[in-house]
Amino acid sequence: MANSNLSNVNFTTQDVADALQILHSFTAKLPFLISMTVSERRKCLKLGDKSLGFVEKSINYAEANPGMVPPFVDVNAFRTEFKLSRDLMDIAREVKPALQNLEDTATRAGGYSAHSSPLIPRQTGPP
After folding, report:
1. pLDDT of 9-54, one tens digit each?
2. Is the predicted pLDDT of residue 125 greater than 60, yes or no?
3. What predicted TM-score, i.e. pTM, was given to this entire model?
4. What's the distance, Cα to Cα, between the start and end of the chain in Å?
5. Which band of pLDDT confidence, cut at 50, 70 and 90, is reported for residue 2?
6. Helix/strand/coil (H, E, C) string of the chain?
7. How far apart are the C-alpha atoms of 60 and 66, rounded to whole Å?
8. Cβ contact 97:84 at 8 Å
9. Which end of the chain is more exposed for a tag (fewer CB within 10 A), N or C?
């Protein structure tokens, strides 16, 4: 049961190698990425569109009124981490759909090949 969109794809070994090299280059640009446990993710505050604006305003107020900032708050680190978060969220918005499409395509291609597999008569002995 072939899918015309996938059965006609010519994805060569070189294409796979090129795609993997691009991914290696991508991750090499982000050596600071971390991995969190599920528990750590649950404990983390998450920024959404509304909270991004709130945090940005807080940074602007802190910079405009340094006397009001508690001494344990490093405003430069605050701004740097906020910018990093925003930049990585922009990248994630682009990567997530591509990753989902990659997984969906692999699943569909695998599903079609698995569906066709039992249709091939089994012979005794090695092929």
Report:
1. 899 999 999 999 999 999 999 999 999 999 999 999 888 878 888 9
2. no
3. 0.75
4. 22
5. very low
6. CCCHHHHCCCCCHHHHHHHHHHHHHHHHCCCCCCCCCHHHHHHCCCCCHHHHHHHHHHHHHHHHCHHHCCCCCCHHHHHHHHHHHHHHHHHHHHHHHHHHHHHHHHHHHHHHHHHHHHHCCCCCCCC
7. 10
8. no
9. C
